[in-house]
Design a protein that fits this description.
Layout lengths: L1 H20 L6 H11 L10 H9 L2 H14 L4 H5 L1 H8 L10 H11 L22 H48 L9 H11 L11 E4 L2 E5 L3 H18 L16 H19 L1 H8 L4 H6 L3 H32 L2 H8 L2 H19 L2 H6 L1 H23 L5 H25 L3 E8 L2 E7 L12 E6 L8 E9 L2 E7 L3 H13 L2 E11 L10 E7 L3 H14 L5 E8 L2 H5 L2 H7 L4 E6 L4 H4 L3 E2 L5 H5 L8 H6 L2 E4 L4 H11 L4 E6 L2 H13 L9 E5 L6
Parallel strand pairs: 9-10, 9-14, 10-11, 11-13, 12-13, 14-15
Antiparallel strand pairs: 1-2, 3-4, 3-8, 4-7, 5-6, 5-8, 6-7
Helix pairs in contact: 1-19, 2-4, 2-8, 3-6, 4-7, 8-10, 8-11, 9-10, 10-14, 11-14, 12-14, 12-19, 14-15, 14-16, 16-18, 27-28
Length: 696
């Protein structure tokens, strides 16, 4: 219901904005007559901007001249064309001194028309009465205005088409998602063409197996590389945007405004096209970055996927904005430096320049290294810069048009924040939280006696701490629910989580007041699969554990669940021993320790150096009773996850789901291994699910 509300509010605001401000969807007659009339001297041209609009809207001779022009040149569309007067004045937020309808304006024009008026634009005789124009003046302008306003229409259509591309992909994903929910067994069946498509074009990393880990130059991460499926979507979007920028321009040497100057025409048309397409792309840009994006639930795509698309929409938008700025600058320079200086003195030009520069800073500031290493700082700066960017677009276009796209964007942003507050209040604005830590793992036990939502696999929440910067928040994985208490965990890295870990380590287990915004996260549909292979790396167990717990509770007949947990040391395991012990009776659990402290080292088998016979013994030393009680096998050394995935898939007698959550390198290694065996089971499907939490 909430997500439906987002769509409803956006649609209502966009419709209202169009109804009030849209003067673009009128007959060409309206624009031609407006040009003919306002090119003449009704003593308004000396005014600037808003004052010019007020002058026009308070001049009954202009309105009457519009009515006469429309009647004489386009009688079938005359009344609709005359409505330009009312729409223009409403758009400029100026009330008409007179409130004439078409018939009244026409009657006044017939009664007071100056038939001998000098209509020469060059002489600019002052007009003090309504005027009418010969048919030749109107006809001469028809091709020019069809080209000029036709480009506006094409620009919106083409900009809309690039957005339909995204929502079209989302609709396909929605249909697929709904079919799987309605017919879950269909998820376990494989069809060869679809399998090949998934193997080579959807699941695999783009190149070199790198996806969640950043691509690096000289050891420095500079960008996250989309998976092949995401890359194809991004490339499709960029191709469409490029095609639509440069097609369907009707250049004409007989253009009245720019005769025999096709180069000037293309500069002006490209400037308008790129600017409008940039504006049309703002609403999905904001929507895709929101936590309460209704498409996440509808499509089954991860928040990480939407962030990939968010970044690439932003980059393409900025290209459009730069083209807009460069083309308008070149257009002004065509008329001389004095014209450029005059244009840059205009308020809306200045705000446009602010927006273009601000957008460039946003893109630079959002490069991977900066946002990953200094995320909180990145986020503060990003919010400030985006606010300036949106404000600059507002002041750039508030007197020109296309504001409905900004209204929709602001509505999306505001609704997302509103739902965040609703979630926090629903949980309890100052919930009691018992915090403790095991090594670098921070465990929160939060009491919410009135909350009804259950802990599901894959869920997480953003938690605010009043003791620290109350406006900051950090995602914590929802491990489980025990009665009226919710258990959240995260690993302390930097920023707020490190402050929390340091505070708890000094004070011991403490009680804090927190705000909880959640739950977020969509659960992967693993239940229909005959074999479920769960692979967790480090704190990634917080996301994986929920699947093992739920599958144990459901105890599906014939389903084989295997859990591999790769940890840095024994201490990491300690925060979850109680939960793992509960799972051990029904699941195959294997724990792999990277490094062992000396007192434990001799009691484990080293998976990197032991012989095959020793690996098969599945025994550990007596001094590790805790680990022995929760795992069927514990080894020292990093396991070969490629072998684990390959062997599991080939040994399974039915469909296989592989669920992975861990460090970047582990995720990428598992993705590469899984994509290589997607076609290994014939008609039984092999599916790969990944939770990476690499949103930064």
């Amino acid at each position: 219901m909430v997500r439906l509300g987002i769509v409803t509010i956006i649609a209502a605001l966009a419709t209202a904005a169009s109804a009030i401000n849209d003067i673009r969807n009128l007959p060409d007659c309206a624009y031609i007559c407006n040009n003919l009339v306002t090119e003449r001297n009704f003593n308004c041209s000396s005014f600037k901007y808003q004052a010019y609009a007020e002058c026009i809207c308070k001049n009954k001779n202009i309105a009457s001249s519009m009515a006469l022009c429309a009647r004489d040149n386009c009688p079938s569309e005359a009344e609709k064309s005359y409505s330009y007067v009312h729409k223009y004045c409403a758009f400029k937020n100026v009330e008409l001194v007179f409130d004439w309808n078409y018939e009244e304006a026409l009657a006044y024009g017939d009664a007071h028309v100056n038939k001998s008026a000098d209509l020469n634009v060059t002489t600019q005789q002052l007009q003090t009465s309504p005027i009418e124009f010969p048919a030749a003046s109107y006809i001469a302008l028809i091709p020019t205005f069809k080209e000029y306003y036709g480009n506006f229409r094409f620009s919106e259509i083409y900009g809309g088409a690039t957005m339909i591309f995204w929502f079209g992909l989302a609709f396909i994903a929605f249909v697929r998602n709904m079919l799987y929910k309605m017919f879950p067994k269909a998820l376990t069946r494989a069809f060869y063409p679809v399998t090949m498509l998934r193997k080579y074009f959807v699941v695999s990393a783009l190149f070199n197996g790198v996806h969640t880990a950043p691509a690096r130059i000289f050891g420095v991460g500079y960008a996250l590389i989309p998976a092949r499926g995401e890359t194809l979507a991004v490339i499709g979007f960029m191709i469409l945007n490029t095609i639509f920028l440069f097609v369907n321009y009707n250049l004409d040497n007989n253009n009245v405004d720019w005769p025999n100057a096709k180069n000037v025409q293309i500069m002006r048309f490209l400037a308008d096209r790129s600017g409008i397409m940039c504006f049309v792309q703002i609403p999905p840009l904001i929507l895709f970055a929101g936590r309460n994006n209704f498409l996440i639930c509808a499509t089954g795509w991860s928040y990480q996927t939407f962030m990939v698309y968010h970044r690439w929409i932003a980059r393409v938008m900025y290209i459009n904005a730069v083209l807009h700025s460069v083309a308008y600058t070149a257009y002004a320079l065509h008329y001389g430096k004095a014209t450029l200086t005059k244009d840059y003195a205009k308020t809306y030009w200045q705000w446009g320049a602010v927006g273009t520069v601000c957008g460039g800073i946003i893109l630079f500031q959002a490069i991977y290294t900066l946002r990953h290493k200094l995320y909180e700082t990145f986020l503060y700066i990003h919010i400030v810069l985006v606010s300036i960017f949106i404000a600059s677009l507002w002041w750039h276009c508030v007197g020109i048009g296309w504001m409905e796209y900004l209204y929709a964007s602001i509505a999306i942003w505001a609704f997302d924040r509103f739902i965040r507050l609703v979630r926090i209040f629903a949980f309890g604005i100052t919930a009691d939280c018992e915090a403790q830590h095991v090594g670098d793992v921070v465990v929160l036990c939060i009491r919410a006696p009135l909350l009804k939502w259950n802990a599901r696999a894959g869920q997480y929440a953003y938690i605010y701490f009043r003791r620290f910067n109350f406006w900051e928040n950090h995602p914590f994985s929802l491990l489980e629910r025990k009665g009226d208490r919710f258990i959240f965990v995260t690993k302390a890295k930097g920023g707020m989580t490190r402050k929390l870990e340091t505070y708890v380590s000094k004070s011991g287990p403490v009680t804090l007041n927190v705000g909880v915004e959640g739950p977020y996260g969509e659960k992967f549909p693993v239940e229909p699969f005959g074999t479920v292979l769960l692979i967790a790396g480090g704190i990634g167990i917080s996301a994986i554990y929920g699947y093992a717990r739920e599958l144990k509770e459901k105890a599906l007949s014939g389903q084989h669940v295997i859990l591999h947990w790769i940890c840095h040391d024994e201490q990491t395991v300690m925060f979850l021993t109680e939960q793992l012990a509960d799972l051990a009776s029904n699941n195959q659990i294997e724990i792999h320790i990277h490094q062992s402290v000396p007192k434990f080292a001799d009691n484990f088998r080293d998976s990197s150096s032991a012989s095959e016979n020793e690996k098969d013994e599945k025994s550990i030393g007596a001094s590790s009773d805790i680990l022995q009680s929760v795992a069927s096998l514990t080894t020292i050394g990093r396991p070969d996850v490629t072998s684990i995935i390959t062997e599991t898939v080939y040994q399974a007698d039915s469909s296989v789901a592989i669920v992975v959550c861990g460090p970047f390198s582990l995720n990428d290694e598992c993705r590469a291994a899984a994509s290589s065996v997607l076609d290994a089971k014939g008609s039984n499907r092999v599916e790969y699910f990944e939770e990476s939490f690499s949103w930064a």
